[in-house]
């Protein structure tokens, strides 16, 4: 019986040594103790705080209105694709027409060499007027007009009082 218990404890001892060896390896590379453990927790908490902030920052940059990229009217006219795109140009003076019966807004925007007609079925932005830069999202209709799904107006660099 003594021998058997010695064998048993010896087997357990070998298993314990392997466990200790594994724990020693883990403690060196994964688990820290004492002051090192506090540093690890501080780093983990700092990372958990910074990760959502950085994710929000990236999201804000991607969706930012300052990243309002568009092609010009001249570039749009040269393309033959009818795929949806964002086009920007200056509103041609006297071209803004509102049809109250169909609730359709029609106007023209111009580039350096070309103009295009835009049709938009919704209320116009308050700032839409002659000589402002309009940015329209949409696609080309079969008749060549641009069917806009949204119309935005770029803010002027300088606000002037009415009548200037």
Molecular structure report:
This protein is of the alpha+beta class and 164 residues long. The chain has two domains: 62 residues, no CATH class; 86 residues, Beta Barrel (OB fold (Dihydrolipoamide Acetyltransferase, E2P)), CATH 2.40.50.140. Helices cover 38% and strands 25% of the residues. The protein is built from three helices and seven strands. It has a five-stranded mixed beta barrel with strand order 2-4-5-7-6. It is elongated, with a radius of gyration of 34 Å. The chain starts with a helix and ends in an 11-residue tail after the last strand. The N terminus is likely disordered.
- Report the radius of gyration as a whole number of Å: 34 Å
Order of H and E elements: HHEHEEEEEE
Class inferred from helices and paired strands: alpha+beta
Annotated CATH architecture of the largest domain = Beta Barrel
Q: How would the global form be characterised?
A: elongated
Distance between the termini: 109 Å
Taken together, the total number of domains comes to 2
- Average pLDDT: 77
CATH superfamily heading of the largest domain: Nucleic acid-binding proteins
Which fold name corresponds to the CATH topology of the largest domain?
OB fold (Dihydrolipoamide Acetyltransferase, E2P)
Instruction: Describe the main β-sheet briefly.
Output: 5 strands, mixed, barrel
Number of strands: 7
- The helix fraction, in percent, is 25-40%
Specify the CATH class of the largest domain: Mainly Beta
Strand content: 25-35%
Number of helices, counting only DSSP H or I runs of 4 residues or more:
3
Largest sheet, order of strands side by side? 2-4-5-7-6
Uncertain segments: 1-10
């Amino acid at each position: 019986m003594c021998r058997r218990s010695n064998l048993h404890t010896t087997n357990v001892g070998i298993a314990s040594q392997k466990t200790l060896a594994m724990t020693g390896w883990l403690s060196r590379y994964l688990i820290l103790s004492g002051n090192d453990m506090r540093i690890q927790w501080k780093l983990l908490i700092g990372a958990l705080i910074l990760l959502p902030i950085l994710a929000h920052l990236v999201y804000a940059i991607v969706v930012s209105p300052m990243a309002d990229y568009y092609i010009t009217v001249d570039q749009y006219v040269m393309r033959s694709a009818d795929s949806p795109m964002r086009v920007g140009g200056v509103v041609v003076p006297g071209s803004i027409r509102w049809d109250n019966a169909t609730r359709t807004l029609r106007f023209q925007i111009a580039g350096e060499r070309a103009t295009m007609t835009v049709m938009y079925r919704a209320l116009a932005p308050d700032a839409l007027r002659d000589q402002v830069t309009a940015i329209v999202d949409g696609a080309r209709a079969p008749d060549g007009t641009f069917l806009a799904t949204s119309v935005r107006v770029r803010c002027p660099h300088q606000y002037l009082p009415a009548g200037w």
